[in-house]
Amino acid sequence: MARRGRGMMSEQFKYELAKDLGFYETVQRDGWGGIRTKDAGNMVKRAIQIAEQAISQQPPQQPPRY
User: Fold this and answer.
1) What CA dihedral angle connects 8, 12, 15 and 17, to 10 degrees?
2) Do residues 39 and 17 make contact, with C-beta atoms less than 8 angstroms apart?
3) What distance in Å separates the CA atoms of residue 21 and residue 17, rounded to the nearest whole number?
4) What is d(CA 26, CA 32) in angstroms, rounded to the nearest whole number?
5) How far apart are CA 42 and CA 39, in angstroms?
6) 15-65, pLDDT tens digit by residue?
7) 39 vs 26: CA distance, rounded Å
8) 6 CB contacts (<8 Å, ≥6 apart)?
9) How far apart are CA 10 and CA 50, in angstroms?
10) Which candidate, 22, 23, 24, 15, places its Cα nearest to that of 47?
């Protein structure tokens, strides 16, 4: 039996994404299992966009000197 790893997104972040994407009420009523596959995919896509934006705003790192 495979063990599932810990989720990468916090519950709070997932709820914020659900609100932004318009299916928060479904999550409140039916839980995460009640959302459509398309909604879950859009949630992951939006989380990736947010992460990419955060990374692009960081100053470039210098390679280590040996």
Assistant:
1) -60
2) no
3) 6
4) 8
5) 5
6) 999 999 999 999 999 999 999 999 999 999 999 999 999 988 887 777 777
7) 11
8) none
9) 14
10) 15
Rg of the chain (C-alpha set): 16
Amino acid 25 reads E
Query: CB within 8 A of 20, min separation 6: which ones?
Result: 46
Its pTM stands at: 0.73
> DSSP letters along 32-66, please?
GGGS-HHHHHHHHHHHHHHHHHHHHTSPPPPPPP-
Joined tokens for residue 43: 């949630």
Tokens of 47: 């989380």
